[in-house]
Amino acid sequence: MTLGSGHATRTGTSPGLPNDADPLVVARRCATALDDAIEQVQVAYGDTLGVRRLRSDVDRLIECLDQLGPPLPGHHPPQPQALETISDEPYDESLWVDVEHEGLGAPDRRAP
Fold it and tell me: Rounded mean pLDDT of 80-106?
């Protein structure tokens, strides 16, 4: 899942980084970038409660990354599954014989 241009993706890598990049290194890099952004927010908004909460959250995130440690022994990240291609060919019309149309009901009846 891509979150937007320039943002990290669900696979744990950021655009421009090799697929074999260490996810912890990528997360630390992103946390550092977020910390820098919060500093800019603090300059723009001042020392408000919301800014202090953001600062606390980012500090806790960085601390958690530092305490994470190595992965569990024997843990292997899941391999991406191959995508299944679905043909653009029309389905067999006999599949739809005697079915009711969602929201319309059976073909031989009228909606109220």
Answer: 79
